[in-house]
Design brief:
The chain is α+β, with helices and mostly antiparallel strands. It has five helices and five strands. It has two domains: about 15-115 and about 190-255, Cytochrome c oxidase, subunit III, four-helix bundle (Four Helix Bundle (Hemerythrin (Met), subunit A)), CATH 1.20.120.80; about 120-185, SH3 type barrels (Roll), CATH 2.30.30.100. Helix 1 packs parallel to helix 5 (about 230-255).
Length: about 260
C-alpha cells in the first residue's frame, strides 16, 4: 500500500506526514516536561529558608554529559546532511557516533544513580547523623559499615558544596543505635524526588531515541536503497525528537547541578 505524503509535503501544512506528526508529539512533550519543571519551581519557591539542598550533584559529570549531548546533536545533523547529499557511508559514521555518545551519556547517568542510591543518611538515637556511602549492610550482622562522617544534624548536610573538605572514614554503627536509615533516593526529600523523576524520564527518552537510531543504522537502513528520500525523512523526524531531548537537558543541568 502506498502511503501518501511520506516524502512529498502536504498542501495544507507544508510538511510531510512524519514531520507534522513529530511536531504534534513534541507539543505534548513540552506540556509533560513543562509540568515537571513547574513543580520544581513551585516546590523550591515554597520551601522554607535553608531547607533546599545545594551542591548534591557532581558538576563535572553533569558538564561532561552536557557536552556529550551537544556533540550528539551535531552528529545527528551531520548524519541527516550526509543522506541529503547522497553520502550513505558518512551517514553510517555519524549515525554510529550519535549512538555511542548517547550510550556514554546513559553510562554516566547510571553511575550517578548508583552513587546516590548507595549514599546513606543514618539517623542515630542520640540525634547525630552518619552520612556516607554504604560499605557493608548484611542482614545477619548487628552493625552497618559506612565510609563517611558524623554530623550533629541533617541540616548540616544540605549544602554539599563544602563536603569535599571534610575527612571521611569507615564508620561501624551498631544497629541498636540506628533510628532510621535512608539512602539518597527519591524518598529522602523533594529535591531528590524531582531529580530522579525528571532525569529518569529524560533517560527513558534517550533510550527510546537510541533504539530508533540503532534501527535506522542497522536493519532499517535497507530503505535507503529503495526509498532514499523517505529514509532521510525518517532520520530527520528522529533527529527532531533527539534535539528536543537535548533541549530538555539544557534546563535540567542548571536546575539540579548549578544551583
Amino acid at each position: 500500500m502506498d502511503i501518501p505524503y511520506t516524502s512529498k509535503v502536504r498542501l495544507d501544512t507544508g510538511l510531510y506526514n512524519g514531520k507534522l506528526g513529530v511536531w504534534l508529539f513534541l507539543a505534548s512533550e513540552v506540556m509533560l516536561f513543562g509540568g515537571l519543571f513547574s513543580a520544581y519551581t513551585y516546590l523550591r519557591i515554597g520551601a522554607p529558608p535553608d531547607t533546599w539542598p545545594h551542591g548534591w550533584m557532581n558538576v563535572t559529570l553533569g558538564t561532561i554529559n552536557t557536552v556529550l549531548l551537544a556533540l550528539s546533536a551535531i552528529t545527528t545533523l551531520l548524519a541527516w546532511a550526509a543522506l541529503k547529499t547522497k553520502q550513505f557511508g558518512r551517514y553510517k559514521l555519524f549515525g554510529l557516533l550519535t549512538i555511542l555518545l548517547g550510550c556514554a551519556f546513559l553510562g554516566i547517568k547510571s553511575y550517578e544513580y548508583r552513587d546516590k542510591l548507595t549514599h546513606y543518611q543514618v539517623q542515630l538515637n542520640d540525634g547525630r547523623v552518619a552520612d556516607g556511602h554504604m560499605v557493608e549492610n548484611r542482614k545477619d550482622a548487628d552493625y552497618v559499615l559506612l565510609r563517611g562522617r558524623y554530623v550533629a544534624s541533617a541540616a548540616e548536610l544540605l549544602d554539599g558544596r563544602a563536603a569535599g573538605g571534610h575527612p571521611h572514614e569507615e564508620l561501624k554503627i551498631a544497629r541498636a543505635d540506628i533510628k532510621s536509615l535512608k539512602n539518597y533516593g527519591p524518598a529522602l526529600n523533594n529535591f531528590l524526588a524531582l531529580y530522579f523523576c525528571i532525569t529518569g524520564l529524560h533517560a527513558i527518552h534517550i533510550i527510546g531515541g537510541l533504539i530508533v537510531f540503532a534501527y535506522l543504522w542497522g536493519p532499517g537502513s535497507k530503505m535507503w536503497f529503495t526509498a532514499p528520500e523517505r529514509f532521510a525523512n525518517r532520520l530527520e523526524v528522529t533527529g527532531l525528537f533527539w534535539h528536543f531531548v537535548d533541549l530538555v537537558w539544557i534546563f535540567v543541568f542548571p536546575l539540579f547541578y548549578l544551583t
